[in-house]
Amino acid sequence: MGEMVRVLVVDDDEAILSLLGSYLAREGFEVQTAGDGEAALAAARTSRPDVVVLDVLLPGLDGLEVLRRLRAEGEPYVILLTAKAEEADRVVGLELGADDYVTKPFSPRELVARIRAVLRRGRGRAEVPEAPLVFPRLRIDPARREVWRDGERVYLTPLEFDLLRALASFPGRVWTREQLIERVWGHDYFGDERVVDAHIKELRRKLQDDPARPSFIGTVRGVGYRFVDEPR
Asked: Of 72, 83, 62, whose CA–CA distance to 16 is shortest?
């Protein structure tokens, strides 16, 4: 039997912490809670959680700043808790490297499904190293999880890397948002398909790829996206 998955729940609402802590523990997770951003970072450094469930609206250090620091210090999966009116925060959170978000109010059952979905992605779990994907201007190394554009390293979040690798593995193939979600996020992802658009936007920014004249990721209007570069 494998080790228990460690989940850190961060929210300033004690009722939510109590509810989620009890429910997640019953579902077999090892749960730790924190009521503010500073406490969350301290707990993350000590316990090294596999998943962080992070409220955006926290007193003092807000959830987005906590997310920035988590991403600078490690690679836990991060699921944001947001309110319906916080669409801008959701987009920023996804651009900062959040793996998913849940909109309040939500059911603990939905959150558990989201946690299990992100865990199924299995970062770095491949046993046989994949050969690098080499293009005239881009090199993607799955074994090292590194991306190089015109000889310069491009730093991506784990989810951004998985999304780029999925597209680049089949140059020219048109992917719908639904297909990309199934391949990268998992077939039981519950969220909005626009999560794909947010991550594509951030990928393009980091790759310096002009969507009007794409070198790497093209938009197929009304359908989805495709990788436009041709392998060497």
From this structure: 83
Q: Residue 53: which of 121, 99, 105 has the closest Cα?
A: 99
pLDDT digits (tens, 9 = 90+) for 104-161: 888 898 899 888 888 876 554 333 446 889 999 999 998 788 999 999 999 988 889 9
Question: In this structure, what are the phi and psi dihedrals at residue 150, rounded to the nearest 5 degrees?
Answer: 50, 40
Q: Which two tokens stand for residue 3?
A: 């080790």
Asked if residues 172 and 225 have their Cβ atoms less than 8 Å apart, the reply is: no
Closest CA to 149 of 209, 95, 210, 198: 209
Using the Cα atoms of residue 145, residue 147, residue 153 and residue 157 in order, give the sign of their dihedral.
Answer: negative
Q: Are 200 and 217 in contact (CB under 8 A)?
A: yes
Q: Which amino acid is at 129?
A: P
CB of 38 closer than 8 Å to CB of 146: no
Distance in angstroms (rounded) separating the CA atoms of residues 179 and 186: 10
Indicate the pTM of the whole model. Answer: 0.58
C-alpha span between 154 and 206 (Å, rounded): 7
User: Per residue in 213-230, pLDDT tens?
Assistant: 999 999 999 899 999 987
Domains of the chain: 6-120 (3.40.50.2300), 133-227 (1.10.10.10)
